[in-house]
Amino acid sequence: MRLNRPYLITRSLCPENMESPIRFLRGPVTPTEYFYRRNHFTYPDLSAQSYQVHIDGLVNRPRTFTFEEIRSLKSREVTTVLECAGNRRNYFRPRVYGERWEDGALSQGVWQGVFLGTLLAAVGMQDNVREIVFTGWDHGESNNVPGQYHFQRSLPLNAALDPDTIIAHSYNGLSIPVKHGHPLRLIVPKWYAMASVKWLKQITAIGDSFGGPFQTVDYNYYPDPVTDVGKYPVTTMHVNSVIQYPLDYSVLRLGIHQVEGIAWTGKGMITKVEVSLDNGMTWSEAFLKQSTSRYSWREWLFPWEVSEVGTYTIIVRARDSSGRIQPFVPMWNRMGYGYNGMSKVHVKILI
Question: What is the pLDDT of residues 263-278, one digit of tens each?
């Protein structure tokens, strides 16, 4: 008998943006076929056989690496959450423009590749390097700045040289799929996934701040609805959580139900998940499963014994080791980034 299977949820077709069915997935690794897809442009057409990455800028020995050269270097594995900065955007009130992501612009798996610092050491960075710019092969018209652009992002030097910032060639033990950055993709743990540039084309060391549109216009928080007052860049992930079961507006029976989900953060690690059944008046601690890595989400469980019929709202909040806690209402911003309001579902209980 064929078992029913979940599907990716389409948010747009061109460019393709598809959401992971996060509520129907369990475990520390997202299978490739369920990894969410986020694109600004159409997919580039690339071949690993002729693929090259050029490193230039403020370096002593500019160099071009082939795909096979990079694959032959000593590699390391990094298990990490990748979350789109617009994940959960659909929940902002007042509503904002952008892809209508709910909870599934989020996936996790094991990436294998070369420490970025190894490549930078090979070309010899100059003393005045401040940032490293990463250019992808994907390109097209920007929604917010007139003109044609490649997708480009920069990292401050300390983030670029973090031991777990890698140029990845594999995901879950196999070559990265084309739709997720094949042949090579940057992976930056703890940062929102716009930093993990796909289809890597060029790496450039610069001595000032990068000013491309995906750095200085997009992927910034704009707290004011009209002006740029208070604008600041999107960087590391907020503390966040999702209830995977029960589903929102479920109808259940009296008895014991296992409320479950995941929680993650871009600073430190998840230390506590709490559940409220009375709109935040009181909280009960959920059981946290062990993390698989310092960058992975934590699965949590909460046994809920229901003895009365009626309607209930289940609210969940997560805390991390840096002292952050999910807010009841997140900071509104007009581009809809970084939503991390407490996760909630509504349930009706029948006899």
Answer: 999 999 999 999 999 9
Strand partners, 265: none
The dihedrals phi and psi of 91, each to the nearest 5 degrees, come to -90, -5
Question: What count of other Cβ atoms lies within 10 Å of the Cβ of residue 316?
Answer: 24
pLDDT digits (tens, 9 = 90+) for 292-309: 899 999 999 999 999 999
What is the token pair recorded at 185?
Answer: 């993709």
Q: Which helix (H) or strand (E) holds 67?
A: helix 67-72
**Considering the entire predicted model, what is its pTM?**
0.96
Closest alpha carbon to 191 in 244, 233, 132, 254: 233
Burial of 184 (0-12, 13-18, 19+ CB in 10 A): buried
- Write down all domains in the chain, each with its CATH number in brackets: 9-233 (3.90.420.10), 240-350 (2.60.40.650)
| Structure tokens, 280 | 């935040």
